[in-house]
């Protein structure tokens, strides 16, 4: 069964994850364009529920300027926020805790299903937005725009035409890179028999776990209540673990390190995120652009994506509103250059990962550190942070990186960034 063209809109967005829905919301909310989101129908091909985290201004002014102008992630999607934490903590390799207060920023969690419901409802209320449940089969340029051919759940072939297409689907292979690590993880949503967690404190990195021979590993604990939390084991290394290995390591962390006592696991989540200095092409055609992780929105050295997606969505909306035929990069060149150096230093073992990240939190004011991790610091601030890192190994790596060849790598598998 087939069908010809079924309609047009200014923009078609392929993929209904964080990047696709964030851009759709921004374009429709700002009145920039009419939008159709092509989203995978329910079934085994649809991604499992995911967790996205970011830090945002406490008043919801996510751009960090304090003007309350409503263009920040907290202001836009506060209804979908599951939990927030005013304090951040890191446990060093020696077990010593370091707690920082990044006020006025807070760390926030958004669950993908709540986010989808919120954005879907907003698109349904708007005459300029709609969600189409279908599988995108092909995307191509046509005169005056682009075309997406889809297969609906009932087998019909649908054709959508638009001025622009933004494609968030995972790439079949990663672009060539000098360094490629993977951030791979498995997390449990646990419920304990007694109160074991402080709901005010998020443990971003707990290095009291066995370290792999190559890369680094840490625990990650986000309390949802005194007796509930997301407890996660994460590695930065070249190869993911088996599910059985993750389960064993998580069990050791929960029982021997956190000493949770009796607990039950409600649900689990698992994923793989590329950490690479590859150059992700933002354009796949004259009128086709890539967004999200496929477009380079994932911060190479941390895996954080959600906040960058919000900034990138605002930048794309501004570019379309101004009639520009291209979209800006999700991260600045200077931030990517620093990430390339850090990834190479970690991959070669020239720096000790747990000591490096613990030192960053210990020696850098919290607000400045969060701006640094978001790529929003000035050259002067970055110079000051750099002087507090292992200068010799980092300088050697910085001089080496520009001369390294870029090599192809396979795609890392599935999973959107949880950060």
TrEMBL record:
Keyword flag Hydrolase: no
EC number: 5.5.1.19
One term of GO molecular function: isomerase activity
EC top class, as a word: isomerase
Taxonomic superkingdom: Bacteria
InterPro entries: FAD/NAD-bd_sf
Key words of the record: Isomerase
Kinase among keywords: no
Pfam entry (one): Lycopene_cycl
Protein name (Swiss-Prot/TrEMBL): Lycopene beta-cyclase
């Amino acid at each position: 069964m087939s069908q010809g063209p079924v309609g047009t809109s200014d923009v078609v967005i392929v993929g209904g994850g964080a990047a696709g829905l964030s851009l759709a919301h921004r374009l429709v909310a700002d009145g920039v364009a009419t939008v159709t989101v092509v989203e995978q129908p329910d079934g085994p091909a649809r991604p499992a529920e995911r967790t996205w985290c970011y830090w945002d201004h406490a008043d919801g002014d996510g751009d960090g300027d304090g003007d309350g102008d409503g263009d920040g992630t907290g202001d836009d999607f506060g209804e979908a926020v599951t939990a927030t934490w005013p304090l951040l903590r890191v446990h060093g390799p020696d077990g010593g805790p370091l707690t920082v207060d990044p006020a006025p920023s807070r760390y926030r969690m958004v669950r993908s299903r709540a986010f989808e419901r919120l954005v879907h409802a907003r698109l349904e209320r708007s005459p300029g937005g709609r969600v189409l449940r279908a599988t995108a089969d092909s995307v191509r340029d046509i005169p005056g725009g682009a075309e997406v051919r889809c297969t609906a759940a009932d087998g019909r072939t649908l054709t959508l035409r638009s001025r622009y297409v933004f494609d968030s689907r995972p790439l079949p292979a990663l672009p060539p890179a000098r360094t490629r690590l993977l951030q791979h993880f498995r997390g449990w949503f646990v419920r304990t028999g007694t109160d074991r967690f402080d709901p005010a404190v998020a443990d971003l990195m707990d290095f009291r776990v066995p370290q792999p021979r190559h890369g680094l590993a840490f625990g990650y604990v986000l309390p949802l209540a005194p007796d509930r939390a997301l407890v996660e084991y994460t590695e930065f290394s070249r190869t993911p673990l088996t599910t059985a290995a993750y389960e064993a390591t998580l069990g050791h962390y929960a029982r021997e390190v956190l000493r949770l006592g009796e607990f039950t696991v409600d649900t689990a989540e698992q994923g793989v995120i590329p950490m690479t200095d590859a150059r992700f092409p933002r354009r796949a055609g004259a009128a086709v652009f890539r967004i999200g992780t496929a477009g380079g929105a994932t911060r190479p050295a941390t895996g954080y994506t959600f906040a960058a997606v919000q900034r990138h969505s605002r930048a794309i909306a501004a570019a379309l509103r101004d009639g520009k035929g291209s979209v800006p990069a999700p991260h600045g060149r200077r931030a990517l250059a620093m990430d390339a150096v850090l990834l190479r230093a970690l991959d070669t073992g020239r720096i000790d990962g747990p000591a490096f990240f613990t030192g960053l939190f210990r020696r850098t004011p919290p607000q400045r550190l969060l701006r640094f991790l978001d790529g929003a610091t000035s050259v002067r601030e970055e110079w000051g942070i750099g002087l507090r890192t292992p200068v010799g190994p980092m300088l050697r790596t910085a001089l080496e990186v520009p001369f390294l060849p870029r090599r192809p790598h396979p795609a890392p598998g599935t999973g959107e960034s949880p950060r």
